């Protein structure tokens, strides 16, 4: 079948959790041409497939099936239709019509094949030659985003699931016109945020008790996740990917929306003034995210830039300081990136010199005339 629909524009916010993606997501979603759907990769695992298919999913990866509108996301499992979120009910109906109900049962397994971190080697291999499984994943993913576009009537869909692997997989899906914003928050702010412990609160989207992450662990995670995202963005190139510091976004949302608008080819500055003035913005039908998102409204407070004012500051452990630095700037990634690029540059230079000397030696060889054969 020849597809006549234009590619779906998907804007993906990537980076590490607790970097302000919820706020960016909702601010962008308040534009009339943008549908912000949150961490939509979790939706299928939230109950869009049969109980039998769900049993195969790691229990730790299951999410609370509540939309930011307050209705349920596990639309096939509700007792009365008005319990279900109307937006996601319509998207699921559309997806089933495009992909068929039996095919979508396989989607959680396909996601597990191509989206987790450990699947990098397989993704790189699929880039060379796509398997039947990847083609199936690509077809279902495209149909899913086409369904969101059809139901919302919006040109751009914002997905704030932050995994760089998922962004890379999306880049390989024909029919998705992917743009990526790499959102980086000051490492000290992320460490402070991830040190907090939370009690289980299903209504607020917290599935189990969280002990809080030690600073050294967050530092390593910050470095690893941001480096992986940098690599994906480098692969996509500057026309498809950009880096945004969370602190810059909070200080000047208008400028940040202007930059993101250039990336997606849309004037996003409409409404930026409202965001900058601290007016509350509504989250529509958003999946996943933190307690702020679950409250349904969010307001931007420039004075409360994380890692600066408005944040509970605790002294960093000595080990974390080695990674992060007393000034809150992550030195480890800068250092690691510097070392990596130096190794790469010197390797490339030595390879170039080797090829040069090899071609010089080859051109210096005397030309030998082919012997003439006669019978
Ligand atoms: Zn909803």
What are the defining features of this structure?
disordered C terminus; five-stranded parallel β-sheet; single chain; alpha/beta; 9% strand; Rossmann fold; 375 residues
What do these coordinates show?
The protein has 16 helices and 7 strands. It is α/β, with parallel strands linked by helices and 375 residues long. The protein has one domain: 3-Layer(aba) Sandwich (Rossmann fold). The N and C termini lie far apart (61 Å). The C terminus is likely disordered. Bound molecules: zinc ion (ZN).
**Span of the ends, CA to CA:** 61 Å
Coarse structural class: alpha/beta
Mean pLDDT: 78
Strand content: 5-15%
Please describe the biggest sheet, giving its number of strands, its sense, and whether it closes into a barrel: 5 strands, parallel
For the biggest β-sheet, the strand order reads 2-3-1-4-5
Number of domains: 1
The CATH topology: Rossmann fold
Q: State the CATH architecture.
A: 3-Layer(aba) Sandwich
- Beta strand count: 7
Q: Say which molecules are bound, naming each kind only once.
A: zinc ion
Unreliable segments of 5+ consecutive residues: 303-329, 365-375
Please give the share of residues in helix. 40-55%
Count the DSSP helices.
Answer: 16
Looking at the structure, what is the overall shape?
globular
CATH class: Alpha Beta
How big is the Rg?
Answer: 24 Å
SSE pattern: EHEHHHHHHEHEHHEHHHEHEHH
């Amino acid at each position: 079948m020849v597809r006549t629909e234009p590619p779906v524009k998907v804007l993906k916010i990537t980076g590490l959790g607790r970097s302000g993606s919820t706020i960016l997501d909702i601010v962008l979603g308040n534009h009339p041409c943008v549908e912000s759907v949150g961490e939509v990769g979790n939706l299928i695992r939230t109950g869009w497939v049969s109980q039998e298919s769900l049993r195969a999913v790691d229990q730790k990866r299951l999410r609370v099936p509540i939309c930011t509108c307050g209705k349920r996301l596990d639309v096939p499992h509700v007792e009365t239709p008005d319990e279900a979120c109307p937006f996601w009910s319509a998207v699921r109906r559309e997806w089933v019509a495009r992909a068929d109900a039996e095919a979508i049962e396989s989607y959680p397994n396909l996601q597990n094949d191509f989206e987790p971190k450990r699947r990098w080697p397989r993704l790189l291999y699929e880039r060379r030659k796509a398997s039947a499984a990847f083609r199936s994943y690509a077809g279902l993913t495209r149909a899913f985003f086409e369904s969101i576009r059809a139901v919302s009537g919006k040109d751009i869909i914002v997905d704030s699931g932050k995994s760089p692997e998922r962004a890379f997989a999306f880049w390989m899906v024909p029919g998705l016109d992917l743009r990526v914003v790499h959102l980086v928050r000051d490492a000290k702010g992320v460490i402070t945020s991830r040190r907090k412990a939370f009690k289980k609160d299903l209504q607020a989207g917290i599935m189990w008790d969280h002990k809080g992450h030690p600073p050294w662990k967050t530092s390593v995670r910050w470095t690893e996740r941001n480096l992986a995202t940098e690599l994906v963005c480098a692969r996509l190139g500057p026309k498809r990917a950009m880096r945004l510091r969370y602190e810059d976004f909070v200080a000047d949302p208008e400028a940040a929306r202007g930059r993101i608008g250039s990336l997606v080819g849309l004037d996003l500055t409409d409404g930026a003034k409202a965001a900058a003035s601290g007016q509350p913005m509504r989250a529509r039908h958003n999946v996943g995210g933190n307690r702020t998102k679950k409250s349904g409204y969010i307001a931007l407070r420039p004075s409360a830039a994380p890692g600066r004012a408005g944040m509970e500051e605790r002294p960093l452990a000595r080990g974390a300081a080695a990674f992060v630095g007393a000034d809150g700037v992550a030195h480890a990634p800068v250092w690691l990136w510097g070392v990596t690029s130096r190794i790469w540059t010197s390797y490339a230079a030595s390879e170039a010199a080797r090829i040069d000397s090899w071609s010089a030696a080859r051109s210096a060889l005397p030309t030998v005339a082919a012997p003439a054969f006669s019978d």
